[in-house]
């Protein structure tokens, strides 16, 4: 960035809901710059963008800007509110140079004969280039100016942003300093002579005239004749101290002089300096003695006193850093020692766990308590994650001080170190060998902080620390371990190992060779690594080649052996030698074809009557070569699981001269037994085609063979269901595609995938692929979401229908259920409803919808806003009341018509009662009237 340029920062928040509770906060370092709220009422996850306009300043160079997304969900939400923080964005700000004016004054004085060095230092980004403008340009930050330098020089500091120039004016005054220095030297010499003369006179009269050697006494310059009980004293602040001073000669008075605990002059030979509560830091007590009556020989001895105080507290912290540390970056630890004295005896020791890392001493001579700070630079690595750092303040006060020396330790500082993942190479080799039909599980484990996410790169990415590789896996796979620090990738080379399989279509089991002619046999085999082909000719030796030329001299049985590092496969070829009479026969036929034809018909008719109809009977029947091969299988066909066992008997129905089984696994050599069994205990070949052969003619001219149909199957490793290209709830009326993935199943032409909703079969899919080796299959189902589907469970089931010979019931595998969530708009069963007003009226607008709807009521009779689904009141006036139910999918209205109760029935009952009452009264009066008349007569 360029200083003073405006830039816009953008914070992208992915897949968050509800967005109206989202606040995005902007920070520079630990300082909150701004925050953004959102008014979108969407309840489903959305992507939001917040922006911040900044003006770049040189102080921002190297600063870290970051944004934080916080969901404030109220008092009922999680506390503290959930938040997620972006990676910091470090800024580089380019700014023009600023020359340091304190180091480069605007005016400089240069005396004749002398020179001055100017220093021009400038701060800028990129780092500025310094040059000087004189009569010619001079590069460098230093310039020597003298009397020959121009009056005005300019320092130029320039970088890619701009250039800054500072002018320096050079003044050149006359220099009288040598003259002044000469006069001072003469005056000093004269004064020195006068001083020496006067001092010699004083020494003779004042010193040598008063002293003699007649009665010598120790002078004040000699050793003072007193002894202290302690050579020095170390005492804690507020503590007590007591030291004796003893005279070694007669004296005229001795005592202690001190700011605390002084002792007046006394004639005792031992006096004690004592303080019970020492509160002075720089106390200097001394013991004095007068051992001459004239008091001219006073001497004194000072007692060195060290007053110490242990620290009030010792604490450790990280300077300008609060988050987890990054491996390989440098951080500064700070140890604060509060209120300690004397600081020159203080040693701060740094520890990691129980290991001493470093120690710091101090040269400050202050005797009073001070606060000291020690710092330690560390560059943490992954082994430091969770390590505890601490510092210890120790006062080493010498032999006279307390033993052991007093110390105080900080609380431990536990650090968290984030480091990029390291994949365990011992658990994930760089090369892995996979045999066909034997999958191998690779395990990729990685150590990192934060915990790394493991994924595999193949044709498509696969999440998880385990990967099953088989012969269908690509040659190179990569394990990726990633976290917020970085990504580590390890390549694994997959070598597929497949036992050789000989191509039987190109190499028949029986080959005729006519005398005098040769045949070329070709043996081709597939396998991994590529197989080596070798022919075995018995006593005739070995031929290393794919092709073998056979003649009449070739042994009856030859073998093709295909081998690699996985194993070997052999195929036996029977060489049948035949005489070739074709030229002679062709000549004879050419001469007498017509004659022979007539004779042939005549002879054949006689032969048919005598040899066929007369000589043959059922007693000694022989099957012809055109009839079905005279063998029977114990099973017409076989269905066996991959890796399973199989055993089938082949029984001869006629006498024979040899029978056996030919197969790539479990073959049985020719034997005279009438029953031979083909057995495989661990069948690992998908396309196996065993056949039973029999020779029932002594000349071996009529061999036949019968193939046993074998189906090798494998149930799927996994069956999974999902929605194609969709996340979140479905919406009513929209179409969605369900996908069912069936992994590693064979044979696929026997596979049926069934789709269910709950227990109801919706559809089923079959496959026409004729592959007999395991494959991955995908089938899809198109559905239209309906409100009735909300909460329904979809699943798919893979079923292998292997016929009557297969396992019963057929093997199946079912996916985990897919729970459907459908959003649908409110929909009332009817749009209007008439309500006859009674004492209390209930208007119920409740409707089923998802998400749950909100309700609003509208009527000219309603004076307040009502949001409940039910309107219950005895004061509702007749009229229309409209209820609207709304959610994110739409809205629906229903009109309630409230009518006044009809009084017609009431009045009809009243009038009828009155009429009946009047009729009764009239009838009664007539009756009374008639009765009265009869009685008068």
UniProtKB/TrEMBL annotation:
Transmembrane feature ranges: 176-201, 581-607, 906-927
Gene Ontology biological-process annotations: cell-cell adhesion
Entry GO MF terms: integrin binding
Membrane-protein topology: Single-pass type I membrane protein
Keywords: Cell adhesion, Disulfide bond, Glycoprotein, Immunoglobulin domain, Membrane, Repeat, Signal, Transmembrane, Transmembrane helix
InterPro entries, per the entry: ICAM_VCAM, ICAM_VCAM_N, Ig-like_dom, Ig-like_dom_sf, Ig-like_fold, Ig_I-set, Ig_sub, Ig_sub2
Gene3D superfamilies cross-referenced by the UniProt entry: Immunoglobulins (2.60.40.10)
Source taxon at top rank: Eukaryota
Gene Ontology cellular component list: membrane
Domain called Ig-like: residue spans: 1-86, 97-171, 311-410, 421-495, 500-576, 716-814, 826-896
Localisation: Membrane
Signal peptide: none
Record-linked PANTHER family: INTERCELLULAR ADHESION MOLECULE (PTHR13771), INTERCELLULAR ADHESION MOLECULE 5 (PTHR13771:SF9)
Protein name: Vascular cell adhesion 1-like protein
Species, as recorded: Labeo rohita (Indian major carp)
Upper taxonomic lineage: Eukaryota, Metazoa, Chordata, Craniata, Vertebrata
């Amino acid at each position: 960035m360029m200083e003073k340029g405006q830039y816009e920062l953008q914070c992208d928040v992915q897949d968050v809901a509800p967005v109206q509770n989202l606040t995005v906060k902007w920070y520079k370092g630990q300082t909150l710059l701004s925050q953004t709220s959102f008014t979108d009422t969407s309840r489903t996850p959305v992507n939001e963008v917040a922006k911040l306009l900044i003006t770049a300043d040189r102080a921002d160079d190297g600063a870290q800007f970051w944004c934080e997304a916080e969901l404030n969900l109220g008092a009922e939400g999680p506390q503290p509110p959930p938040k997620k923080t972006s990676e910091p964005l470090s800024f580089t700000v380019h700014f023009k140079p600023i020359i340091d004016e304190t180091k480069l004054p605007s005016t400089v004085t240069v005396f004749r004969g002398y020179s001055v060095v100017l220093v021009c230092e400038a701060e800028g980004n990129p780092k500025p280039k310094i040059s000087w403008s004189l009569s010619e340009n001079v590069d460098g930050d230093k310039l020597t100016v003298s009397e020959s330098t121009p009056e005005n020089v300019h320092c130029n500091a320039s970088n890619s942003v701009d250039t800054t120039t500072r002018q320096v004016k050079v003044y050149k005054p006359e220099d009288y300093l040598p003259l002044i220095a000469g006069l001072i030297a003469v005056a000093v010499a004269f004064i020195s002579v006068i001083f020496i003369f006067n001092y010699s006179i004083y020494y003779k009269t004042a010193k040598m005239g008063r002293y003699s050697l007649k009665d010598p006494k120790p002078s004040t310059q000699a050793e003072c004749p007193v002894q202290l009980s302690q050579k020095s004293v170390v005492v804690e602040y507020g503590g007590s101290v007591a030291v004796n001073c003893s005279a070694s000669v007669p004296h005229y008075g001795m005592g202690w002089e001190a700011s605390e605990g002084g002792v007046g002059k006394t004639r005792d030979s031992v006096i004690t300096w004592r303080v019970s509560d020492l509160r002075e830091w720089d106390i200097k007590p001394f013991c004095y003695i007068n051992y001459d009556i004239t008091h001219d020989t006073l001497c004194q001895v000072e007692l060195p006193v060290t007053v110490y105080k242990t620290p009030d507290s010792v604490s450790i912290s990280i300077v300008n850093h609060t988050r987890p540390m990054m491996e390989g970056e440098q951080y500064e630890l700070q140890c604060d020692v509060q209120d300690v004295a004397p600081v020159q005896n203080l040693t701060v020791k740094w520890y990691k766990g129980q290991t001493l890392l470093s120690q710091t001493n101090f040269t400050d001579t202050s005797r009073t308590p001070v606060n000291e700070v020690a710092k330690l630079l560390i560059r943490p690595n992954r082994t430091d994650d969770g390590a505890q750092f601490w510092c210890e303040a120790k006062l080493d006060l010498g032999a006279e001080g307390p033993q052991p020396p007093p110390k105080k330790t900080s609380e431990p500082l536990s650090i968290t170190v984030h480091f990029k993942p390291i994949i365990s190479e011992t658990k994930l080799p760089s090369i892995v060998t996979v045999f066909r039909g034997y999958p191998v599980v690779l395990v990729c484990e990685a150590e990192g902080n934060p915990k790394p996410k493991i994924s595999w790169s193949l044709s498509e990415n696969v999440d998880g620390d385990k990967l099953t590789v088989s012969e269908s896996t690509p040659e190179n796979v990569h394990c990726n371990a990633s976290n917020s620090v970085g990504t580590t990738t390890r390549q694994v080379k997959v070598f597929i190992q497949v036992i050789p399989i000989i191509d039987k279509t190109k190499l028949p089991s029986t080959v005729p060779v006519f005398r005098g002619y040769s045949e070329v046999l070709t043996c081709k085999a597939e396998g991994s690594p590529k197989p080596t082909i070798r022919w075995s000719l018995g006593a005739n030796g070995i031929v290393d080649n794919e092709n073998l030329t056979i003649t009449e001299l070739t042994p009856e049985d030859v073998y093709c052996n295909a081998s690699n590092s996985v194993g070997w496969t052999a195929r036996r070829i029977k060489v049948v030698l035949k005489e070739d009479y074709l030229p002679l026969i062709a000549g004879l036929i050419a001469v007498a074809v017509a004659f022979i034809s007539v004779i042939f018909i005549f002879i054949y008719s006689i032969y048919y009557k005598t040899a066929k109809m007369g000589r043959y009977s059922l007693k000694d029947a022989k099957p012809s070569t055109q009839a079905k091969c005279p063998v029977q299988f114990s099973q017409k066909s076989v269905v066996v699981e991959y890796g399973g066992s199989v055993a089938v008997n082949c029984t001869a129905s006629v006498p024979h001269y040899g029978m056996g089984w030919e197969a790539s696994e479990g073959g049985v050599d020719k034997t005279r037994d009438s029953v031979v069994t083909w057995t495989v205990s661990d069948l690992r070949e998908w396309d196996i085609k065993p056949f039973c052969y029999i020779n029932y003619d002594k000349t071996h001219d009529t061999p036949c063979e019968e193939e046993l149909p074998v189906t090798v199957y494998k149930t799927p490793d996994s069956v999974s269901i999902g929605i194609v290209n969709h996340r979140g709830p479905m919406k009513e009326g929209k179409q969605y595609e369900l996908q069912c993935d069936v992994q590693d199943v064979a044979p696929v032409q026997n596979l049926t995938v069934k789709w269910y909703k709950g227990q109801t079969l919706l559809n089923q899919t079959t496959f026409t692929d004729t592959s007999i080796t395991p494959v991955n299959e995908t089938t899809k189902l198109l559905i239209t979401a309906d409100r009735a589907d909300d909460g329904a469970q979809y699943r798919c089931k893979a079923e292998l229908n292997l016929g009557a010979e297969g396992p019963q019931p057929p093997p199946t595998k079912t996916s985990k259920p897919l729970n459907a969530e459908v959003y649908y708009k409110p929909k009332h069963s009817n749009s209007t409803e008439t309500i006859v007003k009674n004492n209390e009226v209930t208007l119920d607008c409740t409707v089923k919808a998802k998400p749950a709807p909100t309700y609003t009521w509208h009527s000219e009779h309603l004076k307040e806003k009502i949001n409940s689904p039910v309107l219950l009141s005895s004061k509702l006036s007749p009229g229309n009341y409209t209820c609207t139910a709304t959610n994110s999918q739409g809205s629906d209205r229903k009109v309630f018509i409230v009518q006044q109760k009809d009084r017609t029935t009431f009045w009809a009952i009243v009038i009828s009662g009155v009429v009946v009452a009047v009729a009764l009264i009239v009838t009664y009066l007539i009756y009374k009237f008639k009765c009265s008349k009869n009685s008068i007569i």
